[in-house]
Amino acid sequence: MIAGSSQVSRWLFPVIAALAVLVSTAGPLSSLSYAQEDGAEPAAAEPAADAGAPAADGAAEPAPKKLDALTWTMQALSYYFFVFLLISVIFVALFVMNMLNARRDNVVPLHLVESFEACLDENKVQEAYDLAKEDDTFLGKVLSAGLEKVSLGYDKAIEAMQEVGEEENMKLDHRLSYLALIGSLSPMIGLFGTVDGMIRAFSVIALGGATPNPAELANGISTALMTTLVGLAIAIPAIASFSILRNRVDRLALEVGITSEGLMSRFQTVGRK
């Protein structure tokens, strides 16, 4: 149904991989860096006299290692990073596929309408049927189904067209429903990670005694917050794209019905006395 799918596949997967990484790491943390050791501050500058002391007196303490935003995000998300990365790749792939399927040229191609109408104007019904049969678009399938039953009467032809139209519309809606599934599933995974992270944080307090390790405590809290953030970051565009594409598909399906009935209206007298 999608024309030129072999050309699309050349650039689709690199784009999916790049966008998936951007979705998983997007946010206000992208321009920040974090210290690997919580609360670590660079040591105050030693007096000039001490700076000139021989190295044998003692080596200076190394500066705390810094983590870039991507590394910190991966550590905060823990194994949820790979779950969200997989969901992001699937979401981008589904979005691109549904965008291509919802193009007007793949649902109501203008060239088919013009050619089909020209054949009927010249009373070339068989050529019109062959033209519609060879066209793998939504409208082509509806028109070919109508011409197959037109010999039984106009009402039978319209009934056959409606059945095929409902079937093709269901296929488009079925593909779109996965976007809604991602929009519902991502926040739930984020909520699961939030609960998991908070349990980790409180277990540090419960098992660490009076002075729990701040770094371990911060790890659990960061997991709780980051999973929620990434889950919402995936769910919001998924729900928005589902709503937009669903409206577009419904509008194109309605246009297919109006166009096909208009083209087949010249057969209204067939089968009637």
TrEMBL record:
Locations listed in the record: Cell membrane; Membrane
Spans traversing the lipid bilayer: 77-96, 178-201, 221-245
Keywords for this protein: Cell membrane, Membrane, Protein transport, Transmembrane, Transmembrane helix, Transport
One GO term describing the cellular component: plasma membrane
Residues covered by the MotA/TolQ/ExbB proton channel domain: 137-255
The organism's place on the tree of life at top rank: Bacteria
Presence of keyword Membrane: yes
InterPro entries attached to this UniProt entry: ExbB/TolQ_transport (IPR050790), MotA_ExbB_proton_chnl (IPR002898)
Membrane topology value: Multi-pass membrane protein
Gene Ontology biological process: protein import
PANTHER family xref list: PROTEIN TOLQ, TOLQ-RELATED
Sequence similarity: Belongs to the exbB/tolQ family.
Name of the protein: Biopolymer transport protein ExbB
Organism: Blastopirellula retiformator
Lineage: Bacteria, Pseudomonadati, Planctomycetota, Planctomycetia, Pirellulales
The encoding gene: exbB_4
